[in-house]
Amino acid sequence: MSDRFAVRQPDHPPARADRPAPLPGGIGVSRLRVYDTVAPDGLVGGTPHVHLCCTEGYMVTDGEGAVQTLTTAGFRETPLRPGVVVWFEPGTVHRLVNGGGLGIVVLMQNSGLPEAGDAVLTFPPEVLADPAAYAAAAALPDGGAPGADVRAAYRRRDLAVAGFQELRSGGPAALAAFHAAAVTLRQPLLARWRQRWEDGAGRAAAETAAQLDALRRGDPGHLGDAGVYTVDGPVERGRLGMCGLLDTYPAIDE
């Protein structure tokens, strides 16, 4: 569930001419309006899924609801209301439940990785075991671009909810099997993910290390390269996401 955010410096080029500066640490940011239709289990909300490499966080801005999570520690439901911040690590199966007007700012580690496939929906095991079947079940018209038929997002949500119910009833063994299937499904993407990480969050961490080394030497040179960056608003409004309608921002991830 997550889209990307990075910014450009207006009116003049950034001090580092190779690329604009990303947000701190190479994170991604999007604004999310959680789906408001009913899933097969009678709950209103989004599509359960997992990330394999990315920690995700929510800052609740509007409405109320909950995030359901499933880890090796078991099932948990965390209430959401304006002002609450919650985050969870890779391997956490999560699902947003909309109690009314739920709006969230989503913070996503490793900007670009979720868009490169670091999100596996909790489809039933027979779908996860077949890459072609998984791709067909997860696909959205026009990639989910604003204006696409939202009913396709609801269909894949409903299939993932069915798988999520199986995971909850199956205990630790079912969750372990799901994790293993998700890793197998995403093996072909790992080299691309590493490159995106190296170009994003990895580069940001390396730059901090270089700055610390410079400061230890008493060298303030990088302080003279500081820039101010901005973006006026989302580049897309209403993209179909896993958990709702996303307002997305540009990103630097390659």
Q: Which regions have little confidence, pLDDT < 50, spanning 5+ residues?
A: 1-17
Task: Tell me what portion of residues adopts beta-strand conformation.
Answer: 25-35%
Major pleated sheet: 7 strands, antiparallel
Radius of gyration: 19 Å
Reading the helices and strands in chain order gives EEEEEEEHHHHHEE
Task: Count every beta strand, where a strand is a DSSP E run of 2 or more residues.
Answer: 9
Mean pLDDT: 91
General description of the model:
There is one protein chain. With 254 residues, the protein is of the alpha+beta class. The radius of gyration is 19 Å and the shape is globular. The chain has 5 helices and 9 strands. The longest helix is centred in the middle third of the chain and has 37 residues. Strands 1, 3, 4, 5, 6, 8 and 9 form a 7-stranded antiparallel β-sheet that branches. Strands 2-7 form a two-stranded antiparallel ribbon. Helix 4 packs parallel to helix 5.
